[in-house]
Design goal:
alpha/beta, nine-stranded mixed β-sheet, about 15% strand, globular, binds SN-glycerol-3-phosphate, binds calcium ion
Length: about 300
């Protein structure tokens, strides 16, 4: 499967901006609709109200990186979600944060002889058998590890937007091209989605550069806190510098905003993982553009308090 995916030419991806594919939204189930960001958010911010992004979905309330977690975010009224994308042994892209299946599934019970249970050592069919919900709460028993295709279809159905992370891309050569191919096939690389609904980020600068080279129209983010003097080099290929909230200051956020990204707009910062009111108020005071959080309702309330 991966060999086929990797065979897609770079030219095809580069040309995909002109293609408008039908969105894959086939689902009879009623779609929870994420509401627009609240106009009540009023905390002082130099660059307007920060966008609230549900980290791995609403992962404080539902098992991370499952369809239940993005549904929960939608039910709570959050339009933006974040995920982590990795690859199985047989080349399927799946949504998983750790590079092993141990923490967030029952893999040790189902496959006791397969330690260390790496994502890359299991086929998609094997992973599809795992329970990815019970570890979090028995009421989520039966949640599965979504494939990227399943995940994109659900985000679309929910009218949500996505901060898409290539997780540990150094383990998965060619994953950027393959991921873009899935996004294209699920309708996420048409003009509307690219302009308004998608950011692709990674801790790997090489991965972000690759995405930017393949599809220069896509908004990108580098995860980390480069020295201020190094920021101009990142701004060549990345629209965002997405730093841990524990590493940033007012001056650092100002240094980011003073630069322009590859699309000629001010460089942005989405900071993570902010899970309480004091931290929310601190980073909002710096003027961050986005706040990535496991508990989006807590962040929303803190922003409303100002
Ligand atoms: O989106 C930011 C955040 O997800 C990066 O850290 O380890 O949670 O993927 P991690
Ligand atoms: Ca992530």
């Amino acid at each position: 499967m991966y060999a086929r995916a990797a065979a897609a030419t770079t030219a095809a991806l580069l040309g995909a901006g002109a293609l408008v594919l039908p969105s894959a939204t086939a689902s009879a189930a009623p779609a929870p609709k994420a509401s627009a960001p609240s106009a009540a958010a009023s905390i002082a911010s130099k660059h307007g109200r920060p966008l609230v992004v549900a980290h791995r979905g609403a992962s404080g309330y539902a098992p991370e990186n499952t369809l239940a977690a993005i549904d929960k975010a939608a039910d709570m009224g959050f339009r933006w979600v974040e995920n982590d994308v990795q690859r199985t042994k047989d080349g399927e892209l799946v949504i998983m944060h750790d590079d092993t299946l141990k923490r967030t599934t029952d893999v040790e019970e189902v496959f006791p002889d397969r330690a260390p249970w790496k994502v890359a050592d299991f086929t998609a069919a094997e992973i599809a058998k795992l329970d990815a919900g019970s570890w979090f709460d028995p009421k989520y028993a039966g949640q599965r590890v979504p494939t990227l295709k399943q995940y994109m279809n659900r985000v679309e159905r929910n009218h949500q937007s996505l901060v898409f992370e290539f997780k540990k891309p150094e383990l998965y050569p060619g994953i950027e091209k393959q991921g873009l191919q899935v996004l294209r096939r699920t309708g996420w690389l048409d003009k509307h989605h690219v302009k308004r609904k998608l950011v692709i980020q990674s801790f790997s600068a090489d991965s972000v550069k690759t995405v930017h080279a393949l599809r220069p129209d896509i908004k990108t983010g580098f995860l980390g806190t480069p020295k201020a003097a190094e920021l101009p080099a990142y701004a060549e290929f990345s629209d965002q510098i997405n730093s841990s909230h524990t590493t940033i200051s007012d001056d650092y956020v100002s240094a980011i905003h003073a630069l322009k990204g590859p699309h000629g707009k001010p460089l942005e910062i989405f900071t993570w993982t902010v899970n309480d009111a004091p931290a929310t108020k601190r980073v909002a005071g710096f003027g961050v553009d986005g706040i990535i959080t496991n508990v989006p309702d807590v962040v929303r309330s803190a922003l409303r308090e100002g």
